[in-house]
Amino acid sequence: MNFLQRVVIVSLTLAGLSCATAPIESSGIADPPAGMLKGAVDGGLRVFKGIPYAAAPIGEARWKAPSSLPRWNGVRSATEFGPACIQPKVPAASIYHAPDMPSSEDCLSLNIWAPADAKNAPVFFWIHGGAFWYGSSRESLYDGARLAQHGVVVVTINYRLGVLGWLAHPELSAESPDAISGNYGLLDQIQALRWVRQNIGAFGGDPANVTIAGESAGGLSVVYLMASPAARGLFAKAIAQSSYMISTPELNAGKHGSPSAEQSGRDLATALHAADVAALRKMEAGALTNAAAAARFGPLGTIDGKVLHRQLIDVFDRGEQAKVPVLAGFNSGEIRSLRILAPPAPAKIEDYEGAIRKGYRDVADRFLSLYPATTMAESILATTRDAMYGWTAQRLVRKQTALGVPSYLYFFDHGYPAADAAGLHGFHAAELPYVFGTAARTPPLWPKIPQTPIETELADAMLDYWTSFARSGEPKAGNEPDWPAFGSKSAYMAFTDTPHPAQDLLPGTFALHEEVVCRRRAQGDQAWNWNVGILSPPLPDRTASCAMQ
């Protein structure tokens, strides 16, 4: 304990806030390079909330890269979460709807849960989901206590969302020394990782053993970080839950069925009757966010040649991604809670089959054997699930395996009475309460998870597997089955009521969607987003480079 720490503990004792004889690890005091913090002690954990990791560019400085903060003076209280980043309201009827929370444009903060005795402990760095529109590190679903009790230091972060985090515009590119714009939310994530690299040792974490992890848009963020040269060396492992390796707008060229990111920025300004970026900066952050959402602005990364060099699929095909172990997977019922991503079933089987034959042409028979017309309602849900989440998860572990890095695939197919009764078996994000051990802290409309041995034991197993992977790059769990690496046998772990290893997940689906994406990508004018199944445009002809998978 250094002299300043002793002085602070004595001062806090005189104020009735701490015990002067308590060791630093159990006092809630931390002294990282960023500045001294007073957190809380919760059982065997030290918890620090609302720590600013960057100066938030707001108002007239809006849409700039985050910048590091100088060391603050004195002791900063770290017992309350920072405000969420500005975002629209989640529809009240959604199972993802949570109570209102404080929000601000000044939102770049992180939270830490650390075992009191942590020494060079693995670091679990969590990036929340929410379609880059919603979410916050303060959500109770992401409470890091149970994970930290398994011996890891947990970090959860906020990053800029919506138009505030992902707008590109030619005027913003002209301001930039690199002549780029967009990706501000991704730059926030990279800045938070830099903060962890510089400061996490003061909380008992190992800066050389950081695992980035996220779900949905957080999972896509993990893939962005794996692809971004700016994030290289800031993490050692990656966990991507229900990620989607979609086609991404390019900065100043329309491609793959999308306008350029700069053109989308121009279009938004026009829709909001803003003459220029200066006018957009004068808008109040909440009003701007809501107006952009109403105008259907789509927050995504931007291929700018610097933060993201090229399409994600190209990065991974060229082997340019971070060479780190990956744990990736998806859920059986992803689209059951995201029905906006799938069209309603046609009235007649003939209409379904006709749409598939028109869209998928020479591979229509393969498609219909996997997603038959006789069960078209379920086939439609499965199509979008497999084309986006399933294809992405398998592609990630395949590409890392090809680099010689052991990687792990999972399939979450667990249901419980409330979820199954609502038609939500294995729904999108259903694995999160098991990964975090927060079954009692889900949002109000989330199907209630019963307190039964099956649920408790499954959560214990997943907590073990996830934290073991963060520790060593190999997921293990007590007396549970060994989780085989994907390897040459296409192995995976299925999570039903219990974990059990298997091989060759959903046979034929990856090969089909890989060929579809390859052909669209080769032609260059079709996105590989949610234009699948009966929504598919006519598939381009097969090329030599897209031979049957």
Describe what this molecule looks like in 3D.
- The protein is an alpha/beta fold and 549 residues long.
- It has a domain at 1-31.
- The chain has 18 helices and 16 strands.
- A hairpin with a 2-residue loop joins strand 3 and strand 4 (45-52).
- The chain is globular, with a radius of gyration of 23 Å.
Task: Describe the structure in brief.
By secondary structure, this protein is of the alpha/beta class.
What characteristic shape results from the CA principal axes?
globular
What is the total tally of β strands?
A: 16
Beta-strand content estimate: 5-15%
Low-confidence stretches: 1-25
Structural class: alpha/beta
Radius of gyration: 23 Å
Task: Sum up the structure in keywords.
disordered N terminus, globular, alpha/beta, 18 helices, 16 strands, eleven-stranded mixed beta sheet, three-stranded mixed beta sheet, 549 residues
Draw up the topology in text.
Blueprint: H1 3-14, H2 24-27, E1 29-30, E2 36-38, E3 40-42, E4 45-52, E5 75-77, E6 84-85, E7 103-104, E8 109-115, E9 121-127, H3 145-149, E10 153-157, H4 162-166, H5 170-175, H6 184-199, E11 205-215, H7 217-227, E12 237-241, H8 261-271, H9 277-282, H10 285-294, H11 312-317, E13 326-331, H12 349-360, H13 364-370, H14 376-402, E14 408-412, H15 417-421, H16 432-436, H17 453-472, E15 491-495, E16 499-503, H18 509-523
Parallel strand pairs: 2-5, 6-7, 9-10, 9-11, 11-12, 12-13, 13-14, 14-15
Antiparallel strand pairs: 1-2, 3-4, 4-8, 8-10, 15-16
